[in-house]
Amino acid sequence: MNEVAVDLDAASTVELVNAASVIAAELARRNAPESAAVCVELTETLAAAVDMHEAALAGLIGVVDNGREVQRWGFPSTRSWLRNRLGMRDARAKERLALARQRSRLTQVTERWVAGSLSYGYAATIAGAVARLDDDDCPVAEEILLGMVDQNFSAGKVASFGRRIRDVIAERDDTGPAPGDARRGYERSWIDSTRSLDGGRYIKGWLNTEDAAIWDGTLGPLAKPAGTDDHRDLSERTAAALASVLSGGHRATKITVICDLDTLTGGTIPARLPDGTPIPAEQARRIALSAGVSTLLLGSGGLPLYLGRTERFASPAQRRVLEALNPTCAVQGCEVPGTLCEVDHVNGWALGSPTDIDQLTLTCGWHNRFKATSPHQIHITRTADGRHTYRLRSRASRLPGGRPPDPWWVEPKTITTPTRPPPHRPPGHDLVKVDHPPSGP
């Protein structure tokens, strides 16, 4: 049997993380016991351990976020790194980042979380509730919400109170809302926007007094009933008013819908937005009725606008095509909109790349310079619809000799594997041991 032993007092953080990884991998390989009663107990024990692992993870993410380490490897933000490098869903990445950033302010939450007396769910709920509170209100909110936890309120109920925590603080302190009800909001306006599965979008937020006045002055007149036959409620009319302003209220606003000529003349092939969201053929024709329509002439293979080596800089028409194909920077995980990006020669103008549409893409200014100075750190692929995608190689693949190292965020240290405990300790004292099945047949 192979044995891995780690001295808990003497081990470094790197060694403990590697040991936890080994234990987790071994647990994942094993089948669950057949007894349901045993599984209940083991599940509760393991869930508590996972919660404490999350506490350690929040500390590590906090250091990464404060040090802006991920920007050195081409990620625009810590949240982008969590999503694209670690494979987290956006909601989970957002939740873990909030915990990492609020950990230092939530001293009681952190102490109880690390001690195992507070679950990850409650900790994440409280961190989300205080994210926009100032340093004076944060400890007050923490005390109130922890009191609800002690009274066995569910995490959902705590989250509900957290959404109106300023009101709860005011009621507890008997101060009441400030004049103009400003205490009910925040110092700055904010809007959260989440895309639904069918391509729609949920919106929630809060506007301060000045922004609310602009909202009312702009949308108020447009949100009035259109006549006696207008049976929409106020919410529906407000949404229509907002869409009207966004589509025509600013000269720089534009929407690109990509569709076949057959679709515009009565066909059934769906159109699509630049990000791939499908648009029903009927809806695409309705959009075309009130939109400017222009054609893009395609050359052989369906690739438009070739300028060769006669021009170094992309033409306005080429840029328009690139913006239709690339909603964001070509680097995977970069969220800079394509309209704010620079045109990049995929294989480099200085290396002989022509200014042809199939040799161009859009990258943000930072990644454009990064690619020019470190071309070997970029892996380029091309999708079926002609778009180029850049992927930053992990640090592992950039090492001399191409040796496969440990995970790139971990120092390349190995776990010591003593065959017996140190002489000054009783056998098995303060040790974590993991047994592995022997290798081979």
Automatic annotation (TrEMBL):
Keywords: Endonuclease, Hydrolase, Nuclease. Transmembrane segments: none annotated. One of its GO terms (molecular function) is endonuclease activity. InterPro entries: DUF222 (IPR003870), HNH_nuc (IPR003615). Residues 316-369 form the HNH nuclease domain. Residues 427-441 have a biased composition (Basic and acidic residues). Signal peptide: none annotated. Residues 395-441 are annotated as: Disordered. Pfam families: DUF222. This is HNH endonuclease. It comes from Actinomadura darangshiensis.
